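Long-time lurker. I teach an intro course on protein structure, and each term I like to show students one example going from raw sequence to a predicted 3D structure in token notation. This year I'd like something fresh instead of my usual example. Would anyone be willing to generate the tokens for the chain below so I can use it in lecture? Attribution to the forum is fine with me.
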Amino acid sequence: MKLFNILLWVVLPSTCFTQKLSQANAYFERYEYERAAAIYDSCAFKKPLPLEEFKRQAYSFYVTGNYDRTYELTDSLIRIKETEPFFHYAHAISCMARADYVKAKGSFEKYRTVDNEFEVDLHIASCDSLMVWSPTKVKKLKNNSQNHSKANINGFKHFESSFVFHETGVDSSGALMELNQIDFSEVVLNRPYVSINDSAPRLISLPEVYQLAVVSSMVWLKSTNQVVMTIAEPASPISQKHAPHLYIGKLNLNDFTVTEIQPFVFSGWQDTSSCAYATVNDSENTMVFTRLKSAEDFSDLYVSRLNSGEWTLPTPISELNTPRDEFAPMFSGDSLLSFSSDGRPGYGGLDIFTVQVTPAGFGQISHLKAPYNSFHDDFNFTYLADSLCWFTSNRSGGKGDDDVYFVELDVIRPVIPIDSTDIFLTNIEKNWKDINIYFDFARFDLTKIRNLDTIVRNLSQFPECALVIEGHTDNIGTPEYNQHLGYFRADAVKKAFISLGVSEGQVKIESKGELDLPVDCGTDCTMEQHALNRVAIVKLVVNRKRRL
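-- Reply from a regular --
Happy to contribute to a lecture. Here you go:
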């Protein structure tokens, strides 16, 4: 009996080990690598794994992003003569993730001598750069308190609006669930939220037909009160809808809804490509977006310009595109564009780059250093204020699959003069003629002002432009009365411009009263001269400086 018990004690653990190993292999073959890795680790704690399972253990940790364990396991595997070349590559990537760039470079170079499935020249160049790069000094890097366990992605900041996208749960009936219930949902879908003037983010509702759509970007065209957004419909029976495309719709901020949704003129539907992640500059005359020709291609950045109310045919931005992926463009103002790329030396995944934009094209590209960029994917960088910016990252240590991060800066981004070759502003100034709007005697009520479409459009497209409205009177009556009357006349014209869609911040008024008469006729004015002085004069002012 004692011998039987001893044999049982030996056989049962062995059987248990074999069963667990079989379970781990089953998970591995179903691509459930996180579960497989946990069981392989549990088995390895008891006794060494067979070589094939040891390789599977290393691969499982690699694909799930646990680079510390990947390093430990591949550091042993690469010492085995018959090890597949892939494990040299995985070892190099894990060294890079651990900031051991010398060892990473050596493993990449070793891999290059035995295989060519993965292109490693860029990784080697990145290791050389990373050995000399220094982190950027910032005041504070902060994980957004509203991040949850799924994807959280910041969006575009345009004037007073800023967008953010949270994966939101959908229950078995198709209804949206509260964010704090997301871990219990049947399906998760990206949903847009908007904050106006730093208010609490509000969920934007879409028509019922888009109930199961994924919305991953949205930009507000304030001049037309429309939004251009990225929508994918993974549950649609139409396979082309599974890929993201650009759509345009009408935004109603009274009830936070988007209606009248239709494909954008350059949505990708025309040629079965995928156009997504649009951004526009503050002047709303330049749009940049990502375009993927097919699932086998890499994504590129394209640009379109607004010309006479129509968007021009998009063209690829050769100055920015590489043979690999360019993704997630984001304007800050008019002259700074950020984008992410894995086609240039960087920290590992998608890295954030910025480029200055001028009417002549795209200037010198700058690479952001840590803490903006990490070994993982970093994207959607844009300024919220002069000393505050935000971006999204799936770096280690976050709350969710993707997290929004805020960066507080010690320095304020600089002000630069507008390029004197800015043909748009130059043409507006060159062709501008002051507008005279006349009033009846002692009146400030205003009939409809005609032929203002071009002026309104230019003001919407160019926030550098502003109007100064001077209210004038004749010299009949007291100076005090005329001062008030001049103000009311200027204010009436200001309200007319605002009713046409011009931003209130772009219109200033002042009363001249009976001072500085447009027609200086002294004390002996004719009735015709008095009539010419009852006027509001609309003048153009261009702010010759703007933020980077």
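Some talking points for your students: The chain has three domains: 2-130, 140-413, 423-547. The first strand starts at residue 140 and ends at 143.
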